[in-house]
Structure formats: structure tokens, C-alpha cells
Automatic annotation (TrEMBL):
This is DUF3298 and DUF4163 domain-containing protein. It comes from Pelistega ratti. The keyword Chloroplast does not apply. It comes from the Bacteria. Residues 1-18 form the signal peptide. Keywords: Coiled coil, Signal. InterPro entries: DUF3298 (IPR021729), PdaC/RsiV-like_sf (IPR037126).
Length: 307
């Protein structure tokens, strides 16, 4: 009888210990689950905060430079015919003076201010002084009046000053405008050209050659451009030789799906009859030379689009 009682007691103790063990493991599991749930909630909260921050930054950038809707504004245009006193058959009877200045308008204050500074010159450089559109109009009027007064004193066959604006396009944070100009003040022909203005909307600044390619890499760019210019021709048959070519620093370029296009003014790489010379360097050739801000990630897609 005693033996049976001991056995029963032992068995009961085993079941009690098992129950206690189960309860401990269950408690530990519940605590672990609660910890994981808390960590998950904290992680979700953190990710949500980061996502909201990114959304806010994107919204801020979009509000600063949305997809541009550009209109071209003619700030000044005037034409006047001046009649001269004729004393002999070779004298000029009349001179037509035509003067026009345009600027792009984007509706974004800082960008419009920057564009006025650029379009006030025909060399693609910023004006030395900050001008408003109204001041640019007054400047053009003063120049027109001075030209008319000068021609009344010394007649010439004609005078034309044309400064035209155009919006070329936008790719993410890079917006490009063109500034075409033509000037004629008598003689055989006038002189014209086109300057491209590339603006980084993140930096609110014009992209220069040094911004695009570090000076240390620019010799490699010159090698590529020289190869494009020379082609299969002998150097003695070219308008400029390699030594002179290396002294030319060209800030006049624009982006396209095909690559970067460098535009040289009349008389720089060829005679007047050839006009401006444009050398195109593909993304495959130039991408590695560019500063990281302006490198393309999807070169293959760009090349297909540009083909």
C-alpha cells in the first residue's frame, strides 16, 4: 500500500512540474511576442516618419520647380526708318533700325530673375548688375535711342539687333533655355549665334563647364572633342590646329538623350559660311568624366531614345 502511495505522489509531482514548465515557457513566449510587437511598432513608426519626410521634401521641391510652363516675353521691340539728306548718288537715303529683346518667363521668381541677368547679354554670361525686366526694357530703349542718334549723324545701310529666347526643355532638376542673337550694323553681313543656358534648379545656378566636369578631367574631354572635330581630315586642312583647339574653353553646351552637344561660335572652328560648329559627345563617351550630380544612370535607355 505504501509503495502505491509513493508512486502516485511521484507521478503527481511530475505532472505538476510539467505544468509549471509549460506555464513558464508560455509566459516567456508571451513576453517575447510582446517585445517583438513593440519593436515592430517602433520600426513601423520610424519608417512612416522617414516616408513622410521624403514626401515633404519632394513636395517642397515640386513647389519650388514644378514642370515648367514657359512663355516668351518680348520686353522691347521697335523699328524706325531714318531718312537721310542725299548729296550725291552714293549717299544712303534711308536706314531701317530694328531692335528686339526677349526673355523667358516661368512664374518662378528666383528663376525669372536669373534669366533676366543672362538675357541682358548676348555672350551667355550673367550681367554685372542685377536687372529687373522693367530695367531691361529701359536699357533696351536707351540703347535704341543712342543707335538712332548715331545713325542720324553717320548713316549706315541698316541696323538690326535681335535677341530671342526659347525654352528647350526640362529633365528632372536641369532646365535648358536658348538665347539666339543676331547683330547687323552695315557691311557684308551680320553676326549671330546661339547660347544655351542650363540651370540646376536644386542649386539655383547656371551649370558651367567646371560644374559639369572637374578641371582635372577636362583634358580628356578636349581629346574627345578634338577627335570629333578632326575626324578623318589631315590637321593641316583644318581651320584650327590642335594647339589652338586646346586653348578654346567652351561653356556653351546642352544636354540631349544622345549625349552632350558643344556649340562653337562662328569663326571659332570654321569660316563664316559654315556657321556655328556643333560637336556631339555620346553618353557612353562622357558619362564617366562628369561630376556625379550630372551623370546618367540609364545610358542604354538614353541612347535608344537618341537614336
Amino acid at each position: 500500500m505504501m509503495k502505491k502511495t509513493i508512486i502516485a505522489t511521484v507521478i503527481g509531482s511530475v505532472f505538476m512540474l510539467a505544468a509549471c514548465s509549460d506555464n513558464t515557457e508560455l509566459t516567456q513566449a508571451k513576453e517575447k511576442l510582446a517585445t517583438l510587437e513593440q519593436q515592430s511598432a517602433q520600426q513601423v513608426e520610424k519608417l512612416t516618419a522617414e516616408l513622410n519626410q521624403v514626401k515633404a521634401e519632394l513636395a517642397t521641391h515640386a513647389s519650388q520647380v514644378p514642370a515648367l510652363h514657359v512663355k516668351v516675353s518680348t520686353v522691347f521691340e521697335k523699328e524706325e526708318e531714318i531718312k537721310h539728306t542725299v548729296k550725291d548718288e552714293y549717299d544712303i537715303e534711308t536706314t531701317t533700325v530694328h531692335y528686339r529683346v526677349q526673355v523667358p518667363e516661368t512664374g518662378i521668381d528666383w528663376l525669372d530673375t536669373l534669366l533676366v541677368q543672362v538675357y541682358s547679354n548676348t555672350d551667355g554670361k550673367l550681367s554685372d548688375k542685377v536687372l529687373t525686366k522693367e530695367a531691361l526694357t529701359q536699357q533696351a530703349q536707351q540703347e535704341f535711342s543712342t543707335i538712332v542718334d548715331d545713325i542720324k549723324k553717320e548713316p549706315i545701310s541698316g541696323y538690326e539687333h535681335i535677341s530671342n529666347a526659347e525654352f528647350e526643355g526640362q529633365r528632372e532638376n536641369i532646365v535648358t533655355f536658348s538665347h539666339s542673337y543676331y547683330s547687323y550694323a552695315g557691311g557684308a553681313h551680320g553676326v549671330g549665334g546661339i547660347n544655351y543656358i542650363n540651370i540646376d534648379t536644386n542649386k539655383k545656378a547656371i551649370i558651367t563647364l567646371n560644374d559639369l566636369i572637374a578641371p582635372a578631367q577636362q583634358d580628356k574631354l578636349k581629346d574627345i572633342l578634338w577627335g570629333k572635330y578632326k575626324g578623318d581630315q589631315a590637321e593641316e586642312d583644318l581651320f584650327v590646329n590642335r594647339k589652338d583647339f586646346d586653348f578654346i574653353k567652351n561653356n556653351n553646351f546642352y544636354f540631349s538623350p544622345a549625349g552632350l552637344h558643344f556649340v562653337y561660335p562662328v569663326y571659332t572652328l570654321g569660316p563664316y559660311v559654315e556657321g556655328e560648329v556643333e560637336l556631339t559627345v555620346s553618353w557612353y563617351e562622357i558619362n564617366a568624366l562628369l561630376n556625379k550630380d550630372y551623370q546618367r544612370e540609364s545610358i542604354e535607355m538614353d541612347s535608344v531614345e537618341g537614336s
